[in-house]
Request: fold
Amino acid sequence: MTRLILRRLALLVPTLLGLSVLLFLWVRALPGGPATALLGERATPEAVARINQLYGFDRPLPQQYLTWLGQLLQGNFGVSTRTGRPVLDEFLARFPATIELSLLGLLVAVGLGIPLGYVAARRQGRLVDHAAVVASLLGVTIPVFFLAFLLKWLFAVQLGWFPSAGRQSSAMIATHPTGFYVLDGVLTREWDASWNALTHLVLPALALGTIPLAIIARITRASVIDVQHADYVRTARAKGLSGPHVRGRVILHNAMLPVSTTIGLQIGLLLSGAVLTETVFAFPGVGKFLADAVFDLDYAVLQGFILLIAVVYALVNLAVDVSYGLIDPRMRTR
Amino acid sequence: MTDAPQHPAGGTEPLLSIRDLEVTFRTEAGSATAVRGVSFDVRAGQTVAVVGESGSGKSTTAAAVIGLLAGNGSVTAGQILFEGEDLVALGPEAMHRLRGSRIGMVPQDPMSNLNPVRRVGAQVDETLEDNGVARGAAARARTVELLTEAGLPDAERRAQQYPHEFSGGMRQRALIAMGLAARPRLLIADEPTSALDVTVQRTILDGLTDLTDRLGVAVLLITHDLGLAAERADRVVVMYRGEVVEEGDARTILTAPRHEYTRRLLAAAPSLASRRIELARHGGHVDEPAPADVPPDGSPEHRGTAPASASPALAADASAPPLVEVEHVTKVFTIRGRGLLGRSSGFTAVDDVSFVVPRGRTLAVVGESGSGKSTVARMMLALLAPTSGTIRFDGTDVTQPDRSAEVAFRRRVQPIFQDPYASLDPLFTVYRTVEEPLRVHGIGDRAQRHARVRELLDQVALPAGLLRRYPAELSGGQRQRVAIARALALEPDLVVCDEAVSALDVIVQSQILHLLADLQERLGLTYLFISHDLAVVRQIADEVCVMQEGRIVERGTVDDVFDTPRTTYTRTLLDAIPGRDLDLGRPA
Reply:
């Protein structure tokens, strides 16, 4: 197991190196440049040249790349042309918000997707099943940003049940020792701050979690249908195992094997979905900042954020792979 | 709990009494009655075997008794009286309480019947707990006792392992331990050993018989194997197409069958008393399998008709150079080491094997799983390259890579595989399957190919009406005939049959063996016949090689090897054949 982790970490180095080259070129292929984006359309050529010189955008591309790479190796992700602050600081300031959102989105997807899929499978061919299949199809096909706008319009604007934007009401005065607002409220016993942050998370998390929810429900349904006809389920019944044990230890546990793989894959989707969701709900996370950086052609932020997200994604996937062994003993001996 | 109840061999009241049972399955095409008017009794401590081919309703009957019919099946008439109580009238809750504690089951396939994600010990523990036998530490201690009792060595450590760390035989022992954990009075054993090697089969059955005898458990043994039924059961019930056609004392049924179907079943059952299927004398005409005209004891002095001298055509061919010469062939598989720097190791699947296959004859390679016999077949088909040694086909070394020679070689060597359900493309019609090799090798135009396909179907005795059918619409025997027709399309010299009849019911198996013998006679085919079933080998082969752990441990003509085996291993294999001492279908 340790070897697996070490090998995967070693593989991460060439992957990230390749990604850094692609990112670097992609960012520079975007139309316009950071100077014009910063100074506006009517900037004088002198002002543009000064900005370009300041950030080194006038030097040859290989040189720019090597400089950037050299800084990266020292843990320096550069400085945002828009805010003037180090990229890493900007990332770390927003990352907790995105984690909170993604975790809650995942909770929605797994917490509703698995029961929905299970119930549909157990009532295969009946009304509940058909409803679940149609709903999950709808969930897969609906675009995230559309769903986000719909939820915001209905539950925030029309019904007013949830706040429409931000992480916490601006009127709320709270201390933030960790940056995870829900957790902070718990730690400082400012329960109202925790609750307030949680209500801000509900709509974005629903929007973010819907597609993974639908996918997880469909995979769970297919997997349970498959497993419940397995020989070992029949044998479990034949040896007198109680109903709950047959359903839990035998059917559900075995049905979870493909589902766990799916959940691992959905985590990438959550991170990319966060960009759209955060933008719609003006949620100050990594995604929203990244989307803003695209409009401002903030090279350092685009490169740094995407690289950091890639690292997070790779580590999460490694964790998921390692956790397969917990569910499937056959993976442990390999 | 551990003490065996003292039981009378046959009380007045039967333990299980099935009366006019009818089971119907609802399908989209309407309802289908799988079991009709079935009646028989099982007395306490008695072993009753239900024998029949697939689709005869024997497993459905067993499933009805334990209340585990598939979702679309139900008992539509009759009674299942167990200890005087009608199980058909019981609700699901009462039926659930009965399972495990009063009626146990040992399922067919040990590979698929254990929960793969739970430790074996835990799977016995939960059986004990849910049947209210023992809990916690007491259950765990009892589990070790039960596993030991079922013949699992080192049970304490083994209980901590997962099913994938067990061999097939060990898994079946664990399943037996579970089936008997709560000391049921009736054990349903549904083909308990048909997925296991013949020697393992014997030890498992011996263990099961000892245990059920000692505990006084009645056994309802479901099997397709008449020899096994005769050897293990007190009474035999023969089922055919959902009905009981004959029932009675095991020996009587097997020695003096009254029903036509039982007679056919007995005649088709391969046994060591069988002889090489001979057709030359009948001008190549295939008869229904008839009882071989040999003395029951099969002693050497009676072996007047040795296969080599039986057919003039075969005898003439014997002087020609052999079609296949395998010399010192070894195959080592590399097993990748664990982790980043783990060292890989070699596993020798085939170890210095040499043999020749004479033209127009059949060489059988027999052995248990893991003996290397299938690796030999795959190397013979040039699907695997040997690590060392040479394989010469008609004088040419086929282990040397040569593109044009390879195409020619593939035309002349064709395979027939074990599973006709898996080896035919489900999206190809029969016509397309048989025509494909002709098309690939660019033989003839459309009309010629069409004529050839019809001719091939005729050769394997399939009606032309099946041309447009898909594999799913065919029976197992029909599928295997299609596979044979496909193999013959290119007029090969050598046909490699890898367990070609192992997945078939005895009667179908016998028909296919006769077909193969007939085709060999008519087309001068040479067979390399890979099998684990010695009784089948006896019917089809001229010469035999016995493989064990990658090596050939014994070789010779079939009669020599079977009648006077020289190695203990061959003797063990022969002794393990169920019902070998019985002379099926012939008066004692």
About this structure: The CA atoms of residues 351 and 551 of chain B lie 5 Å apart.
